[in-house]
Amino acid sequence: MPDKRATSRWEDLQPAAENGLFDRRAFFTGGAALAAAMTGYSFSEAARAQTLTDDPWSAAPGTPTGPYESPSRFENHVVRQITNPNGEPRGQQSKTPHHLIDGTFTPNGLHSVISRTGAPDIDPDRHQLVIHGLVRQPLRFTLDRLMRYPMESRFAFVECGGNSAPLWSPEAMDATVQQLHGLVSCAEWTGIPLTTLLEETGIDPAAKWIIAEGSDALAPHRSVPMGKVLDDAMIALFQNGERIMPGNGYPMRLLLPGWEGNMQVKWLRRIELVTQPSMSIYEARTYTQILPGGDAYKFHFLQEVKSFITRPSPTVNLSEPGFYEISGVAYSATGRISKVLVSADGGQTWAEAALQDPVHPKAFTRFRLPWRWDGGPAVLQSRAWDESGNFQPTREQIIAHRGVASRVPGSTNAFPNQHYNGPTSWSVDEAGEVKHVYA
Amino acid sequence: MPDKRATSRWEDLQPAAENGLFDRRAFFTGGAALAAAMTGYSFSEAARAQTLTDDPWSAAPGTPTGPYESPSRFENHVVRQITNPNGEPRGQQSKTPHHLIDGTFTPNGLHSVISRTGAPDIDPDRHQLVIHGLVRQPLRFTLDRLMRYPMESRFAFVECGGNSAPLWSPEAMDATVQQLHGLVSCAEWTGIPLTTLLEETGIDPAAKWIIAEGSDALAPHRSVPMGKVLDDAMIALFQNGERIMPGNGYPMRLLLPGWEGNMQVKWLRRIELVTQPSMSIYEARTYTQILPGGDAYKFHFLQEVKSFITRPSPTVNLSEPGFYEISGVAYSATGRISKVLVSADGGQTWAEAALQDPVHPKAFTRFRLPWRWDGGPAVLQSRAWDESGNFQPTREQIIAHRGVASRVPGSTNAFPNQHYNGPTSWSVDEAGEVKHVYA
Fold first, then answer.
1. What is the residue-wise DSSP string for A76-97?
2. The complex's ipTM?
3. What is the pTM of this model?
4. In angstroms, what separates the C-alpha of B294 from chain A's closest C-alpha?
C-alpha cells in the first residue's frame, strides 16, 4: 500500500503530455518526486530486504579474465541479426540489436554491416592506399605511414540508405526495432582528415569529385563531391578505440559523417580525383530512388533526421503498470539533434525528452523521458529536430511525397525502399505487449 | 627531393618548443604547412602511384560477418597483459595495451580488470541488489526493475590505486606503457544514479557512509562517504553500450567517477548505509600508503591528475626521421583536463598539446601534438593540468614527498606502491628506439 508521502510526491509531478508522460525536468530535480512515485505505485509490492544469503556463484572462486574479454554467456542473445550467414555469392546484412543496448554509441561486436562479397582478409602490412588522378603528385600510403599523421576522433553514425525500409510497407510489419532500424549504428572513429593527405598530393582545381574504391572482391566504388571531402571526410583507422572491425573496413575505411553508408567505402584502397562522378551501379541504380511520378533522385547523399524508441519496443514488453523510462536514439546528417518529442497517445500530445550530453553533430543522441504506464492502451512515438531546422516528417507527410512500397514494372525491387525517416509507432496493449503499428 | 613549395611551407611553421615540437594550432590551420612538411621531409622517398594491381584478398569473396564481431586476426597481438591466467587462488590483473589503441576510451575487450577471486558467473535473472541499513525502507532490486529507472550515460576512467607502481622503483624499469600504466581504462557507463534508489529507500540522517559489497567469493567491500554517493555515484549496467563485461562486474557495478578502482565495487549485491566506515582490509591495509616518516594516509580516495604518452612509446618505435604525431591520454578525479604540455627535450622546454573535444570531467582526454624527429636523441614527456587547478607534479616533487619504493620492516610490500602521478619519460635513441627512462 503506497505511503502518504509517496502519494503526495507523485501528485506533485506535473504531466507534460497525456497518457503518463512527465516533463524531462523530472530528471533534474534531484529525483525525489520521481523515485517516490515508483515506490508508491509500480513498486508497491517491493519486498523488504531481510535475510542476506549467498547466491551459488558467490560460493566458489570465479573465472579469470582472458587477454581479450567478451560479454557474459547470459548475454548470448545480444547479437546482430544476419542474412546470408554462409557467405553465398550475394550481399550480407548484419543488424544492430538496438533494443538490447543503451548509451550513446554501438559496441563494435554489434555494429551493423553490409557487404557485397564478404570481408576481405587484409594483411595491414601489405595493404596500401593510393591517391591519384587530378593531383600534383600521386602517392601510396602504407598503414605505418598513416599512423604518423595528425589524427582526430569523432562520433559519427553510419546508416544504410535502405535502413528502415520495412516502414514503406503498406501494412505495419510485425517486427522489432532491430529488424526495422538495425542498419544504422554509431561509433567513435579515429583517423586522418582526408584533406591532410590531399594537401600532400595536391589538388588540381579541375577535380570536382573523388572516386573511392574498396579492395573487396567486387572493387565497389562510389563518387563523392569534393565539397564533402573538404568538409569532414576521414580515413578512419580506429573504431571505438581499437582497429576497425573486419566488417567495417579493416584496416581502413572512408568516413563521410552523416552520408549514405554505402558511400563510406570500406577496405579502402584507392581514391581518384576526377571531374565527373563515375555513375557506378551503386549510384546509378542501387541507391537511386524512383519517385511516385516516375522521376528519380539522381543522388541521395544525406541520411535525414530520424529517431526511434528502443525501450520499450517489441519483445521488450512491460511487466506491470507503473513507471518506465522511454529511451531511444536520434541522429541527423545536418547537425546536432536539437529536440526530440515523445508521444504516448499516438501523436495527439507531445512531451520533450531529455537529451544525453554532450550532443555531437552527425552522431547518435540518446533521449530519455519518464513515463507512467497506467495499464491501458498506449501508442509510443518519437520525432526529432536538428539544429539546421530539419525535422522528421509525419508518416502521412512522407508517404504523400514518396508513396508506399509497390512493384515497379520491369523492376525486381519494390519502391520506395530507402530513406524512410518518418516516425515509428509502438502500441502497448493491456497485457503490456509492445507491437509495431502505424499511427 | 623536396620541392620548393613544400620546403617553404615547412619553414613557415613556428616551433613551439625545442627539439621539433610544433604548435597545436598546426592542427587547425587547414593542415597545409604540416602536410607539405611531411612530403618534403619524412616522405621524401614516397613512391609515385603507377600500376594498380589487385592484392590477393581482392581476388575472391571474403568472409561473412557473424552475429558478434571480433577484431581481425592480424590484431591478435592487441590484448591485455594478464597475470594468473589459470585463476589460482589469488588476485588477477589485466592491463590495457594503451600503445596499440587510440581514441578517447577503452574498448570493452581491452578494459583493465583486477579481481580477487575471478569473475563470478552471475545469472542476471537471479541476482539482486539490496539496499539496507540506515534507510526508511530497505529494498531489493532485480535487474528487470532497475532497467525501468531513469538512466544516464557518462564517460569515466577507472584506475587502480596501484596503477603506475613501477614508477616508484629507484631505477627506471625497461617496460611498456601497458606494463607501467595498464591498470587505468575509460568507458562510457550507463546506469542509474544511486541517489535515485536512495530517494526510494529513504536516507536516515545518521547515515554518513555506505558499505558496498560484491558477490564474488571473498565478498569484498569498501566504504564510501555519503558526500560522494550524493555527488555522482552510479549503479552501472552498461559499459560502452553493451552490458558490463564479466571482469568489470556483470551485471552491475558501483561507479564512483575518478575514485580508486577498488572502491567501485563490481558484481555489486549490497549497499548498507552506516555511520562509520567498515575499515575493511582494502581500506585498512591494501590501499593504505605508508609515508616516508612512517605515517600513513587513512584514506586515499581520489586518483590524481595524470597523463602519459602512448605513441611513440616503448615497442612503438620510430622508423626514420621526420614527422610523427605525439599522442597520449590525460585524466583527473578533480574535473576536466584543462591543459597538457609536452616536452621533447626531457622537460627543458614545453609545448601545449591539442585536446580532443569534447573534454569530459573524470574521463580520458586524448591529447595530440605534431613533432618532427630530427634523428637525434630526444626525451618525450607530458604533464597535465585540470580545471580545479591540480596538476601533475614533477618526478622530483613527488619522490621528495613520497620516497622511492623500499621494503618496510615487517611488511611483504615495498612502499610507496600506489598513486604515482608524476611524468613518464620516453627516450628516443638515434635508431628510433623508444625506452622508459627517468628524466
1. TT---EES-TT--SS-EEEE--
2. 0.93
3. 0.93
4. 36
